[in-house]
Write a structure and sequence with these properties.
485 residues, alpha/beta, Rossmann fold, nine-stranded mixed β-sheet, seven-stranded parallel β-sheet, 26 strands, 25% strand
């Protein structure tokens, strides 16, 4: 569905389920990946979604489903945008699996606003609840029963036990949950010493860095084979009521025909929402992928550059060694190329990165040094108000996004020009976010194009203006700003 398409009013059958947990690290991702893998092997068409802002879990969900995984979040997006995105990317014949985040009712505040349960209510999704059975038996039933009664609008239809220590342990858990809660236990996964997918400071290692994802698939199959009741899970998904659809559509995109937009994508920089890149492509832009690890220069003819997040710290030595690319970045910024950087991209544009006792030279676009610490320096939803001149956003715009970073800027960021006042979150420090130097802007906040249409519009407008400056004598109808809607 393109940005200008609409969804007709009516109802649509969309088998679906949300895999939730009692807390973070309950095993939701492993169960979600296992279900997707087994369904695909059984010939069932699947699509995957992730509740909340995240890049790593969706990258594995995309791997398991063989399709881009979409994020759904009621803080970032309004209800209509969430529903429109789900309807646009889900399937009617197959299963749409949504992986929740944190605990089922954990949200923005004490009321659980913007929780997985809020998404369940919005999209009428049956819940498959993952219960970490470590050192518990009948108490697990009490917890499940509490979740059932906490909000009757949330339909918990089945339970998967995780970290079960043996056959007797499983039998007691099954009997207590099925008797007290009157819902089936549809799977039980054993305790294991080695996870199918290793973790590190931000969560799972992304597929781009994992290496042998085939082996990961084999390990996952060995774990879930014969331990998840696929027929019962299918029944839960197919019990979802038809989803009402109202006439809705996404805002039309600005015209980007004739523009060539680069983006850095490799194992160091892999945090991109599919919708962000798709918004640029649908607008008519030519997207050019490049690697900060191997490219010696920027591609010819770029009108803007987008540098997403990722793990520059784990690639710091290779990035610092690619001096030609770092010089090219600095030169392009000095020449006025619009450059938009998020989190890892901000680190790449700094003077240096300190990690594990060593300091690595970066591009030096921003005269700041960054250090990586042992604890998160920013984690959660963010809200910003644009209050200063910058290449991409009009003053007065309020931006809602998220941040998750262990790094911080060592210098006092207020000494540099910045675009936004932080209303919620950490940003670059001292209540400011998005450093600005010429046409380059970088900060820790990640934005989603569906939630923030100003993101694509701002990048395209900056690229269009740069193209005009480069060739002011050329009359090109594709580079005329769209009329006000």
């Amino acid at each position: 569905m393109s940005r200008g398409d609409s969804i007709a009013a009516g109802v649509r059958s969309m088998p679906r389920l949300l895999v939730a947990g009692l807390s973070g690290d309950a095993g939701k991702t492993v169960v979600s990946l296992g279900v997707l893998w087994l369904l695909r092997r059984a010939g069932v068409e699947v699509r995957a979604f992730k509740k909340g802002p995240d890049y790593i879990d969706p990258s594995w969900l995309a791997w398991a489903s063989a399709h881009p995984a979409r994020n759904l979040d009621t803080y970032l997006m309004d209800a209509d945008a969430v529903r429109t995105s789900f309807l646009a990317h889900g399937v009617t014949a197959g299963v749409n699996l949504v992986e929740g985040n944190r605990g089922l009712y954990d949200g923005f505040d004490a009321a659980g606003t913007h929780s997985s349960a809020a998404l369940v209510r919005l999209l009428s999704i049956p819940v498959l609840l993952v219960v970490d059975a470590t050192k518990t038996t009948c108490t697990a039933a009490a917890l499940v029963l509490g979740c059932q009664h906490f909000d009757p609008r949330v339909s918990i239809r089945g339970v998967v036990l995780n970290n079960v220590s043996g056959g007797r342990h499983e039998s007691v858990l099954r009997a207590s949950i099925e008797t007290a809660c009157a819902i089936p236990v549809v799977g039980a996964l054993p305790r294991r010493n080695t996870p199918p997918i290793p973790e590190r400071h931000l969560g799972l290692i992304p597929p781009e860095e994992f290496g042998d994802t085939h082996q990961a698939g084999q390990s996952l199959l060995e774990l879930v084979e014969g331990r998840l009741d696929l027929d019962a899970i299918l029944t839960i998904a197919r019990s979802a009521p038809p989803l009402e659809t109202a006439s809705a559509g996404l805002l039309p995109a600005p015209d980007a025909h004739g523009l060539r937009l680069g983006y850095v994508r490799d194992s160091a920089f892999s945090f991109y929402y599919p919708e962000n890149l798709e918004a640029l492509e649908r607008a008519g832009a030519e997207l050019v992928a490049l690697s900060a690890l191997t490219a010696g220069d920027l591609p010819e003819g770029l009108h803007a550059l987008y540098i997403g997040g990722g793990f520059p710290e784990t690639h710091a030595q290779q990035l610092a060694a690619n001096a030609g690319f770092l010089r090219a970045l600095r030169r392009a910024s000095e020449e006025g190329l619009p450059i938009y950087a998020e989190c890892g991209g901000l680190i790449l544009l700094a003077q240096s990165l300190a990690w594990q006792g060593r300091r690595y030279a970066m591009a030096g676009v921003f005269p700041v040094d960054v250090e990586l610490l042992a604890k998160p320096q920013g984690h959660g939803y963010s809200e910003l108000k644009v209050d200063a001149p910058n290449p991409f956003y009009a003053e007065g715009v309020v931006l809602r996004g998220h941040e998750f970073h262990y790094s911080r800027i060592r210098e006092d960021a207020v000494a540099m020009a910045s675009a936004c006042r932080v209303l919620r979150g950490s940003g670059c420090g001292v209540g400011r976010e998005f450093l600005v130097r010429g046409n380059t802007m970088g900060g820790y906040t990640h934005l989603h194009a569906v939630a923030t249409p100003e993101w694509a519009a701002g990048l395209i407008q900056a690229a269009r203006e740069y193209a005009r400056r480069r060739k002011p004598h050329v009359e090109d109808c594709h580079l005329v700003a769209p009329a006000a809607q």
